[in-house]
Batch of 2 targets.
Target 1
Amino acid sequence: MSITILGIESSCDDTSASVIKDGFLLSNVTANQDVHKAYGGVVPELASRAHQQNIIPVVDQAMKQANVSKKDITAIAFTRGPGLLGSLLVGTSFAKSFSLAMDIPLVEVNHLQGHILAHFIKEYEKENRLPEFPFLCLLVSGGHTQLVVIKNHLEMGVIGQTIDDAAGEAFDKCAKVIGLSYPGGPLIDKNAKVGNKDAFSFSKPRIKDLDYSFSGLKTSFLYFIRDSIKENPDFIKENMMDLCASIQHTIVEILMDKLEKAVKQTGIKKIAIAGGVSANSGLQNAMKDRAVKYGWDIFIPDFKFTTDNAAMIAITGYYKYLNKEFASQDIAPLARFPF
């Protein structure tokens, strides 16, 4: 019998719904919230209100595009956390109500696990090259930076993570310092493509083992810009492309240094990247360079599966359904939800 999963993602400011049937994607619809750009970051109260407005239309469109009805849904999967509590409450409440109304299983999903399992979303008329177990994943998003060993679809272990800011936060905060709008990471990437990565050098943190740190880099970049502007008020304008290229190169090299160390320690050469920052061209190019240099077998997700989306929640829900991992109606969302 076919298994059709409806996935709901509402961890931050994107409301998303997706339908996956037997591991194949049928639809993936996302409503973005542009209102936050005016504030330079996501405003939790505005985000949760927008989710309430968007969730019904988004689910309706996802089911129409998938050409399925409510009666065709085998189970509903939703993001339990981590994320903004108000936003998570909207998705959780909808999923619980849908599950109760249709008398189908409810499946909770860890948002971070979803990012990793996005690599297992299959699409019709595509090659669908999936990672083999075990593999290493560098999970890099706005709020998380982790090195994870994936033993199977549902068994994962964190072997390294940031002790302060995440890589995505470093991108956005450095972008803000030089006057770029939110979200700044994609704008840094765009400018970096025509800049000189060796124009400026920034110190890398010395953190033991496989953990990361980006707060010191962010602070040193702020002081560097402040001091440079004192000498030349037009410094940013005259050096925008090179500044973007240099800071992006530094962040990527910090990420790759630890990843190389993790490969040596584990002996695993199947490497994946996941999360919003995995869309960064500098990081993708660095992965491809290492693949040639060290013989890594790399997996880079399609852009549509890098940002927050419900397809990754639905595919995780699919594997949890196969394992009969169901949630009860008294489940509550979690702002902090480690593996």
Note: The domain at 4-127+305-322 is CATH 3.30.420.40 (Nucleotidyltransferase; domain 5).
Target 2
Amino acid sequence: MTCIVQKYGGSSVADLDKLKRIAERIAAAKRQGAEVAVVVSAMGKTTDRLVGMARELGPSPPRREMDMLLSTGERITMALLSMALQGMGLDAVSLTGSQAGIITNDRHNDAQVIEVRPFRVQDEMAAGRVVIVGGFQGVSYKRDITTLGRGGSDTTAVALAAALDADRCEIYSDVDGVYSADPALVDEARHLPELSYPVMQEMSAAGAKVLNAHAVQFAKEKQIAIYARASFAPGRETVVRRLPPEAITGVQAVVSEQQITRVRISGKRTLESFDRAVRLLEERQVQVKEVNLSHVAEDGGLSRAGFVVSSRNVYGWKHLEAELAELLGEGIAFDHDLAPLSLIGEGLNRNNQVLTATMNMLGEHGIPLAGVTTTSFRISLLVPRERIEEGVRVCHRNWIEGRPLLQ
């Protein structure tokens, strides 16, 4: 029997009418003989409202209590969807992340799935029930409720699909797959019918919102194909899977992220200061990225260091900035007016042509650069936040528009 895991995002389950339509889709799959497990997000803007309520009580809410609070959003959705299915005559049961066996580490707000024990899910499916699982949440080995970070319902779905040895994992949202840029910013953004795991993972980490980066990593490790589709507009889709080398090369997408903070550290004991700053952030369970250490001094110290934090996803970031400033004094500075513009694709850094051409192109448009980082599949350039949308359009026009998808 075919086993399918479906995930429906917040916009797909934003109200009761949409929940009923989702229930009809699930019922159709069930009637075709498939075993179905469904992962759901909180309805509409529920998570944002809960975060807002917490922040009214204090600027830096405790991370553990935030997990307790935010996990309630998905519980509402899963119970209502189960009721809708039962109202249509289908046997269904809702399960929390912990009831579904989603085991995580003890890192609150962005926990990592370390194991899935799907025994309860398998038992319910074997009894003929549709299983509705609250996404975005799990339980730590300390038996605390944890959440998996923004977009974590994708991770729940992929992890569950792997544990169930599902035939496919379908991710439904309000867009029909992945595009070469945000269609809200770029009118000529292209629909991408298929992507490799590394390219999709870099896109997600760089700011693309269709799929969660951790989910893609999990899918890559377990070799699970992800089908990204629109909930209410059947037709096109993006399939994320293992692709043969050289299948698609060149720039495939231009991605940006708005809310980041660059942290700069300098002084005679920069390495020690950098270590203290990163240790504090690790204690607060805040991830750093784009780390750079440079200008080695004769005494073995470093005169400059820095990193980037996706501050949008950090509750109480301003409070943390104040802690860092108190810890390090004048040796630390924060840049809030920058945004990363990223080119994503296969083989971008086999030579310097894409990098140098992009830097020259942005310079011709008067867009200054504040930093550059690269990986095997990504070139990221820090530019002024007020110029980020212009930069995305310039790069997309140059690297993608008018060129065939298969380069």
Note: The longest strand covers residues 338-346.
